[in-house]
């Protein structure tokens, strides 16, 4: 049983997803459905991207209270390629507004018939809070929430692994770095756990390890060299300098020595193991540059999958809301 | 008779509106025509927004010398839903440029076939100034000009009142707050006066009351409790803190006590009276939060009407300019 | 023979243009082809702009590491009118990133199926550097590179001259101002030299004159009054105040006296000579305001030609890349 309000608020009375705020509570069948639709939207590099009119007449508003050009562009292209109108609201340029006023912004967009609101925020709780108040035809998509949740990232990570490895059941997956502050790690853990990997390992310096009530069933390591032994998937997390010093790591080079994913370390993983990174990378800090560009890296593929996953989520949410509209 | 240059410059030789800079000089028939077209463009919340191709092939440029995300998005969505290409120019990031250079910017956009220029500026005079120089096929839409004019706001306010109250003739309308610095109040006064309300009242602290040559025929109050007595419509204006202190009001709470629209005060209005606010609100300053969210509030409706009014204005201006092009 | 890496990197194995980084190395036939296509895309002021679907399904990303609203909007409108999806990335708001990280940004956009990347940068070398690494279907368009290159500006200047003067062969062209720091001058010199003007003159204060190995065959003047004698085309360059002081010119008025294009000076040019400026102008500094607005000025025409040239370049690059895709 969960007490995370995001889990229940993101479903309508019939249990359909109308928001996507967290991957917690999604069934394996639901995750697989989203991965399948994303796979349908994928095209080879060099081919034109997939297009359809799933969002014809819909308006997608990108509300980024925390800046992220790459994630904003990924959602923007996904929405445009599904035929939506897209508006960008750069919210960080104005001073941080309090919850009540955010709600007024949301109500304003809702009144303008913006029906899918893509939100990113550095503080926790806003997507679920807002989702409680919007009209039945309005959907909230979480594009990154504090250290808590980044569901489309978790989905694109799962899709990337599935493309290369096929089946999740036999896989050992390692997430390495600042687990404690990582929404990427939390959403990946939810996806991989639900999809049933054999083992999920997390490796972090002691000060960056999450508390014991999180990441249930994950195997914990503070030594990356032991953690990487025999894994099929290595996911490196972006480290922020202020977090390093909080963990008593003096500089980039020390972090790289202690926790960087290097070619030497990759030899301890299973042959054919893949390396992932959510981007943007600090090259030669959390990941060696030659590993990032090497044959085991699937980092570019993650980016391509990101647009496809966002198309799949947008199209699914829009269809669920439309069904509700027509049959109630 | 008026000497406001905006009044004459906004019409072509045949008297048709080719710019919209002020509501002054518009006839009741013209205002009603715009309200009717906006009503045609309205859809229920939850339905897809109206779309047509009135602006097919046209380019709308949003030039905001004063920032306003909500008004920019409202115009952007209106233009996109009429099939226009839209470009946003964030002019406040560059240092305030002098009139001549603004004209070079305008000429540049005109040469790029941007034919509808939506302008917002914190200083008065720019829209009418620019309108004198643009080519015959180029239109200027005023999206907020200093304390002077905000014509689409005046129109959406009139539309909102008409939807709820039907006929303007019997209505008593109160505008309350910083009348002196309010373009919203000036445009609303022009609309309601032309559309023939029974009485227009303005209520403001003495220091925020406009001079006697403005708001002709309006009944003036410095006591909100007397002003609100028996009115059908209460429009609260956004107060800015620096203006409060200019009016010797020390803080938000004092302003709220003296001039805030509260549930208690609303009891003095006529039964069924509505409450309006142009947004964004300072909750519990110029308007009590429970009033803003209560059954008499039509604030969300104003926002929805805003997009519809902007569609109506864009389509009307485009048609007028096109007629001129084809038949001259 | 050239050693500029931009020259070779911008062609594919069959010699077709797949990037546009510099005008150096383009043949007269290639330049003429681009001018002809741009002419095809031109419409009279007041007519709707040309539209087609040459970029249908394509994604154009504007990456401006150096801000320029007018150039960004010109590329944005060109791409929209050819049916592309367009995303804007404001890169100058983030701190200047090093080459490697720019490459990660490029790879990210490429993985998102952004296939035409329009780049502007205040430092030299980035477009050619990036072009070496992108996938075969991705094109780099240089929208202004340090003091080095601004190819679409050179093309629009050539188109403007051709429209008014017809044949390049008999023409004497003067470029006047801060030649040393001007990418506009360099690209114009390349275009006019290849298209075969009779004489190209450059006039600059001594400290703003480029070194002797640049602008081969150009006639050099440090006296604008002698330089302008008998020319058919006068191109004034924008001067920056910090460059003035570097050239021991104390203020705007001094620069205007020494190098400004005035009506008096224009009398020394050939009758019917035209005046050009790349914009934005410092009125009454490098160009007298009455000359800029006078009958010999073609400055607005340059802007209109700018969108048409960018449409021509976008459509040509897209066709070349598509041919390669289909027939290899």
Question: Describe it for me?
Answer:
Three copies of one chain form a homotrimer. Chain A has 328 residues and is α/β, with parallel strands linked by helices. Chain A has two domains: 170 residues, 3-Layer(aba) Sandwich (Rossmann fold), CATH 3.40.50; 147 residues, Rossmann fold. The first copy, chain A, is 41% helix and 14% strand. The first copy, chain A, contains 13 helices and nine strands. Chain A has a five-stranded parallel beta sheet with strand order 7-6-5-8-9. Chain A has a four-stranded parallel beta sheet with strand order 2-1-3-4. In chain A, α2 packs across α13, α6 packs across α7 and α6 packs across α13. The longest helix of chain A is centred in the C-terminal third of the chain and has 29 residues. Chain A is globular, with a radius of gyration of 19 Å. The model of chain A has no long low-confidence stretch (mean pLDDT 94). Chains A and B meet through β2 and α4 of A and α3 and α13 of B.
What descriptive keywords fit this protein?
alpha/beta, 328 residues, 2 domains, Rossmann fold, 4-stranded parallel sheet, 41% helix, 9 strands, homotrimer
Topology:
Three copies of one chain form a homotrimer.
Chain A: H1 5-9, H2 28-41, E1 59-64, H3 69-81, E2 85-90, H4 99-111, E3 116-121, H5 126-131, E4 139-145, H6 151-165, E5 172-176, H7 183-195, E6 199-203, E7 219-221, H8 224-227, E8 233-236, H9 241-246, H10 252-259, H11 263-266, E9 274-276, H12 289-292, H13 299-327
Parallel strand pairs in A: 1-2, 1-3, 3-4, 5-6, 5-8, 6-7, 8-9
């Amino acid at each position: 049983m969960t007490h995370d309000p995001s889990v229940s608020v993101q479903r309508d009375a019939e249990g359909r997803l109308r928001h996507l705020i967290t991957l917690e509570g999604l069934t394996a069948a639901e995750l697989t459905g989203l991965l399948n639709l994303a796979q349908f939207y994928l095209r080879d590099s060099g081919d034109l991207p997939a297009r359809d009119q799933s969002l014809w007449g819909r308006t997608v508003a990108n509300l980024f209270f925390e800046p992220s050009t790459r994630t904003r562009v990924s959602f923007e292209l996904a929405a445009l390629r599904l035929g939506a109108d897209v508006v960008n609201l750069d919210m960080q340029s104005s001073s941080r507004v309090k919850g009540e006023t955010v709600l007024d912004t949301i109500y304003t967009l809702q009144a303008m018939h913006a029906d899918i609101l893509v939100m990113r925020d550095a503080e926790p709780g806003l997507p679920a809070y807002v989702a409680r108040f919007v009209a039945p035809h309005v959907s909230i998509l979480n594009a990154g929430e504090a250290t808590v949740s980044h569901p489309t990232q978790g989905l694109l990570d799962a899709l990337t692994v599935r493309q290369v490895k096929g089946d999740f059941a036999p896989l050992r997956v390692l997430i390495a770095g600042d687990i404690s502050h990582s929404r990427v790690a939390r959403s990946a853990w939810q996806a991989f756990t639900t999809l049933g990997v054999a083992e999920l390992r997390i490796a972090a310096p002691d000060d960056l390890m999450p508390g014991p009530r999180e990441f249930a069933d994950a195997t914990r390591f503070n030594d990356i060299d032991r953690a990487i032994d025999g894994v099929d998937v290595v996911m490196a997390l972006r480290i922020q300098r202020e977090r390093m010093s909080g963990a008593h790591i003096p500089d980039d080079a020390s972090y790289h020595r202690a926790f960087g994913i290097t070619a030497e370390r990759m030899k301890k993983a299973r042959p054919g193991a893949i390396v992932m990174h959510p981007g943007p990378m600090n090259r030669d800090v959390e990941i060696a540059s030659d590993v990032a560009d090497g044959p085991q890296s699937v980092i570019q593929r993650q980016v391509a999958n990101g647009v496809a996953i966002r198309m799949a989520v947008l199209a699914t949410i829009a269809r669920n809301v439309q069904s509700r509209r027509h049959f109630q």
